């Protein structure tokens, strides 16, 4: 079977794709590929000016909406704007994220990585899902990471890392949460709705995401990046396949096909056993609804 590339993306004419964090890195490459295949792409970004610059570079049918995932007020405003502009959405790609940041909190008091990577996207998805759930062929694609396997758990006794803080463990918690969310959302969508929920990860891709790695890790990353890493354009392929391949099934997870899933072309990959824990999925969902105040229509 030949390698899946952007050449495999079919005609996206008439489809509306919303991509969070799409002014740079993986999100930008995802947006550019979808726009090149005639989708109407919405860059949902924190910095509107940078979003407009990215839209100009991409060309095609691209617009911008302001979205700051660290603020539930901004999430609500962005969701309202999208629903007023469009009567449906075909693709919601939850791509934005932060990684191994110093300890800090969102505007709502959530630990930054959990608040941005999981809770912000959870709330955003829930608020626009009535424009997605019953659209034929629609998909919610959430970008996770191999980090979901690394010392990862959902620390319900200290979700916001108030007692102690580990940059990597907090990141891993947020990426595990992305998968638990995807699988629970798919279970709910499968109960009579047209849309599906899928996930993807980019492997070891060259993006700005690693800028917050502890100083001690930076030389290691720099040394191994040429050997193990790949470009943002390659890293975006699992997301693009999850979003556009007609054979995709709800609940699938896509990542690179190379050694350790660090680089290569996209294929269906396996996530951790913990990510498939039904009780964990349901508990995280309930807690996430309580923390964000967002109740899903499915």
Summarize the structure.
The protein has 298 residues and is an alpha/beta fold. Helix content is 39%, strand content 12%.
Structural features, described:
It is a single chain. Mean pLDDT is 94; it is low at 215-225. This protein has an eight-stranded mixed sheet, sandwiched between helices. The chain is globular, with a radius of gyration of 18 Å. The chain contains nine helices and eight strands. Helix 2 links the parallel strand 2 and strand 3. It is 39% helix and 12% strand. It is an alpha/beta fold. This is SDR family NAD(P)-dependent oxidoreductase. Pfam families: adh_short.
Topology, pairings included?
Elements: E1 16-20, H1 25-36, E2 40-45, H2 48-58, E3 62-66, H3 72-85, E4 91-94, H4 112-128, E5 139-143, H5 167-189, E6 196-200, H6 218-228, H7 232-235, H8 237-244, E7 253-256, E8 266-268, H9 278-292
